[in-house]
Amino acid sequence: MEECTNYSAEQEEQDDLDGLSPGSGPEDDIFTIVISPEQAGQRIDRVLADRLPGQSRSYIKKLIKEGNVSIPAEEGKTLKPSSVVEGGETVRICLPVQMMPDILPEDIPLDILYEDQDVLVVNKPKDMVVHPAAGHYTGTLVNAVMYHCGSSLSGINGVLRPGIVHRIDKDTTGSIIICKNDQAHRSIADQLAEHSIVRRYRAIVCGNIKEDTLTISQPIGRDPSDRKKMAVRPDGKPAVTHVRVLERYGDYTYVECRLETGRTHQIRVHMAWCRHPLLGDTVYGSRKKSPYTTQGQCLHAQILGFIHPVTGAYIETEAPLPEYFRKILLHLQEKSNY
C-alpha cells in the first residue's frame, strides 16, 4: 500500500460534505446570478421569478422592495420590481432567515434501502440536491422526505435541513441517512465525528492506477483561487481516503474509495491530486467532453454501515450501481476484451 505524504494542518471552519454540525441553524442565504442576454429588456422581478423556481412574484417583489436584491456593479442604484435589466448584469440576492421561503413537502419517489421509526436510508439519484439552498428550494431530498416522513424528522439542523446529518454532492448517487428524531441525529452525528461509519464509494477514474491499494492522506481546504472549489492545501482539514483497485481498463480504472474522513468533495479532490480525476468531473478533472454520458462525476455511495442509534445493532445498506454507471463498466469491459 502506498501512503501519500500528510501535512500537519490547522483545521479550517467549514461544513464537511459528509458531516453537518448539529446545532448549526440556518443563516442568511446570499448568492448571485448572472442575467442572460436573452432576458434583456425584462422586469427584474419577472427575471428572478424565472430564475428561482418555486418562488412567487410577490415574494420576489418583497425581496427587492426591502433592499435584498442589488447589482454590485451599480452600487448606489435603487432597484424596483419594475427595473429593467440589460443582460449580463450580476445580481446579488440575500434571503434573510426570516424571509426564507417555506420548505414544502413534495411527492417525489424515494428509493428506500432501509427504514424504521428512527432512521431512513435512501439511494439518492443524480441531479438531486440534498437540502434546500440558494436557487434550490424545491425538488430536493428534504422536500421528498418531508412528504414521506411527515413531522417525524429531527430538527437539530434547522428548517432548511430537517433530518439531514450528512450529505453528498448533487451529481453523486447513492446512500444517505435521514434521522427521524433528535436522539438518532445525535448518535449518527457522533459516529460521523468519530469516523466509525462505514462509507464505501465506487468510482471510475481516468488513467491506470498502478498500485492495488492506495491511501491518500492530504489536508483539504478552500481553493484560494476559487472559493467554490476545494483543494489540497497545508492549512486544510485532515482528510484520508483509502483506494482499492477493482478493475483496470487501460485508460480508466474502476475503484472502491473508503472514506476515513468526510471533507467537502474529498474523493474528487484526492483523486485529482493523485492525477486520476473522476470520469466526468469537469470541476476537478478535464474540461474536455467525456466520451461517456455521466452527467457529472462518476461516483456512487454504495455501502453505508452504522450502529443503530437505539438498538445498537450494526446496520449496513448497499445501493445498487445506477444504470449509467453499469453501462459504462460494460462498455469498458467489452473494449478491454478486444
Explain what you see.
By secondary structure, the protein is of the alpha+beta class. It has helices at 44-51, 57-65, 141-149, 182-193, 266-273, 323-336, and strands at 2-3, 29-34, 69-70, 90-95, 112-115, 119-124, 173-179, 198-206, 213-217, 220-223, 226-232, 240-249, 252-259, 299-307, 314-318. Strand 14 and strand 15 form a beta hairpin. Residues 1-26 have low confidence and may be disordered.
List the helices and strands and how they pair.
Blueprint: E1 2-3, E2 29-34, H1 44-51, H2 57-65, E3 69-70, E4 90-95, E5 112-115, E6 119-124, H3 141-149, E7 173-179, H4 182-193, E8 198-206, E9 213-217, E10 220-223, E11 226-232, E12 240-249, E13 252-259, H5 266-273, E14 299-307, E15 314-318, H6 323-336
Parallel strand pairs: 1-9, 7-14
Antiparallel strand pairs: 2-4, 3-4, 5-6, 6-7, 8-13, 8-14, 9-12, 10-11, 12-13, 14-15
Helix pairs in contact: 1-2
CATH superfamily of the largest domain: Pseudouridine synthase
CATH class of the largest domain: Alpha Beta
Tally of separate domains: 2
Terminal Cα span: 31 Å
Structural class: alpha+beta
Helix proportion of residues, in percent?
10-25%
List keywords for this structure.
338 residues, Pseudouridine synthase, Structural Genomics Hypothetical 15.5 Kd Protein In mrcA-pckA Intergenic Region, Chain A, 2 domains, three-stranded antiparallel beta sheet, 15 strands
Provide a brief overview of the structure.
The chain has 338 residues and is α+β, with helices and mostly antiparallel strands.
